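Schema walkthrough. Field components (list of strings):
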Amino acid sequence: DQQVKQNSPSLSVQEGRISILNCDYTNSMFDYFLWYKKYPAEGPTFLISISSIKDKNEDGRFTVFLNKSAKHLSLHIVPSQPGDSAVYFCAASTYSGGGADGLTFGKGTHLIIQP
Amino acid sequence: DSGVTQTPKHLITATGQRVTLRCSPRSGDLSVYWYQQSLDQGLQFLIQYYNGEERAKGNILERFSAQQFPDLHSELNLSSLELGDSALYFCASSPRGRSYNEQFFGPGTRLTVL
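Field assembly_structure (string):
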């Protein structure tokens, strides 16, 4: 039972264009969401996060949008650069601590930026 | 470099054996998390320690155990190894116990069980 789903295993985008990565979740108890980026042979690196009390959070070229009613979040990267080519993981957690305090991850989307 | 170190980088062993993976968190971080990344399951949370105490459990098998020492480094012990235990094992740390703080991941230990 996957509680966090990233339905696109890969995504190819031209350099300079917008990259949009999507994530859906099923557990309504999740109230904090994070995006991680991972290069081969390295651990995941934190990118950006959003609390459920917000619907948008921006950090430079990265913006995360949260639609709680649809249980959907997305990561926008504008403009896309070659160094953005990596696997992106969506992750979620609960504040209340009723369950595990670890993050629940999606399976990742491999973003490829074409020159 | 996240500041989280993991040893060894690679480990090759046989079925039935026992191994220990080691993690040193970032300086000042009290929480340590262990994750397993296998090809078909993605990143799965195993267990969390906070300041030496077990804080939360995820999908950790009974054959696996962990501990966090007074100097805050942590070890993950995997016993009676099976072929399916072959995976990347990541350790992460964060300053406080709540997972909504960003977690900083180490480079991982690749375990191969033959």
